[in-house]
Write the structure tokens for this entry.
Amino acid sequence: MSRRGIIKPGYMRAVDLKNGCIEMVHGSGGRAMAQLIHQLFLTAFDNEYLRKMNDQACFQSFNGRMVMSTDSHVITPLFFPGGDIGSLSVHGTINDIAMSGAKPSYLAASFILEEGFPLSDLKRIVDSMANAAHAAQVPIVTGDTKVVEKGSGDGVFITTTGIGMVPEGINISSENARPGDKILVSGTLGDHGIAIMALRENLSFHTSITSDTAALHDLVAHMITAVPDIHVLRDPTRGGVATALNEIALQSSVGMMLYENKLPIREQVYAACEFLGLDPLYIANEGKLIAICTAEDSTNLLNVMRAHPLGENAAIIGEIIEDTHCFVQMQTRFGGKRVVDWLSGEQLPRIC
Amino acid sequence: MKYIDEFRTGTLAQKIAARIASEVNPQRDYHFMEFCGGHTHAISRFGIIDLLPDNVHMIHGPGCPVCVLPIGRVENAIRLVQTPGLILCSYGDMLRIPTASGMSLLKAKAQGADVRMVYSSADAIKIAQKNPQHQVVFFAIGFETTTPPTAVAIKQAQALGLNNFTVFCNHVLTPSAISHILQSAEVRQLGIVPLDGFIGPAHVSVVIGSQPYEYFAEEFQKPVVIAGFEPLDVMQAILMLLRQINTGRAEVENEFTRAVLPKGNLKAQRLVAEIFELRRVFEWRGLGLVPYSALKIKSCYASFDAEQRFQIPALSIADNKACECGAILRGVKRPQDCKIFGTVCTPENPIGSCMVSSEGACAAHYSYGRFRDTNHATSKEN
């Protein structure tokens, strides 16, 4: 008796997302790849652009200025308290776009997958990306996957690229800081880096700190509505606030004076840094921003930030001063002064 | 953070600063050497200089373990790690020290050598347990503070029967270095380095106690105040030194009473004495050959001695000619007196070891204090 007819025409056995793993065939361009993309990525990211199954997304262009940014994510471990490489990769690019004051519009995502990587983990990551993109209302409209042989990757690397639209009248750039301006941060510093560090094999300490990974574009939208003349926005990721401020100082040819007693730092982060010999100013953040605006605007901006859930611990931490050497200095809580220098060397590898 | 914030209070700092200002004799200068890199770091990081009168000068001492290790020993480690299958473990800063040719353990790692950064000697033991087919060498450095943990690692390795674990021992002794500085011509005859007193080590003294310093106070008539590494400790120690000098005393005083006892930690001392013995002589960067200033592993523990197992030769390699680390470590020069400071030699591209460790005088001044050099103000550091 023929078995034909028992199996529905067009049926293909589903990819085993529970127990399966990435194989070289998933990157070979054949049916297995198409099936994985369809069953996993398209299902999770579903939107009108992806559904067309083209190699590119096609959409109407905007009037006005657009911004574009890209960010690769190689974090280890892939899953951490407060997030995972998936949510991080969505937030990372959204934030890079938002730091121009732009409203992020679309994302592209590119995956490098290592042979043997469990599909259940990949599904967790892809679902997390989908949730993050959905929550941020920024669709992932095109993508790519590649598979590398076992040993040539570290599970999964994700690159996201995004574009966004800058509202009329907004001109935010790292070269715009002016002497007299105030420096604000949107919340506690160092949470992401310390949450990641606590998971590292050779650093055996436990903390209740979770990563602060978050998309900041909504906070930025509120900020620029209240204060359109924000001079600089920057998300202090790798290298922390210290490195971001040094970059801005150099780009704007100004100096800075920070006040140590104004820095919002959680007790646990402060303690972990003490134990590990680190400085919270150099620890990475993934859901915080630095804003620089005129002294007149600063109180208003601070209040707007504090009224937003992602800015409730916002603080004015310092001011811009004239300095041809572009030093970022800090008035210490102790009563002295010191340089807050660029990060030198590597504090901790692969944190984002 | 409890037990930390109490020692960093700005209001208390102002009070001590006011006392120092009122007790200082304006007719003279005071030159104090903080021996330890930990103090150097605290002075720079908290901006303590800004709280001192202009005639109180701080001189950075040689108490940074990474800084005083001679290049020959770093070269030894770099050659050793070329051994196929060998894993070399060390503390982070060691990896970045450049040799005369610009090589470092970090560069050796990038070229394929198996170099692991560890936070403690116990991590090296774990690596040895996990890799029984590999030789694991712990590149041990440091003063009396890090010696007991190395001793514990050797005891553990023995108890676990680890035959793939050895220690490349570079532990050095604080009192010998202080003696050497005080006996140097620069201090005694030439007067190039004016020295009125010492801020004594914090953590080292927890292990060795306060008694070993009595000799310096007595013999060289220099007051010593043992101080903790927190900024208020340093301020208080400066005040105590000042008072000793103003009243003509030269004593060992202990500001760090919450941790240091006169006899130190006897258990740790016994453990160290069981495993290690004095080297007849050891080379220090900056100080040269200093007699009886370092430890080696006793012959009964020779099976854990990397120098024995791998026949590590004695190498003496000169520092880069432009580098002033030697003079800086002796207190003869300040970081900003070095021609290549902040130009050729930076924390990203260190030429000398003082620019490597955050406890090094050059790195501390570069990272925290170099804005003072541009103010055309007379620097109070030295």
Observations:
- The mean pLDDT of chain A is 93.
- DSSP finds nine helices and 13 strands in chain A.
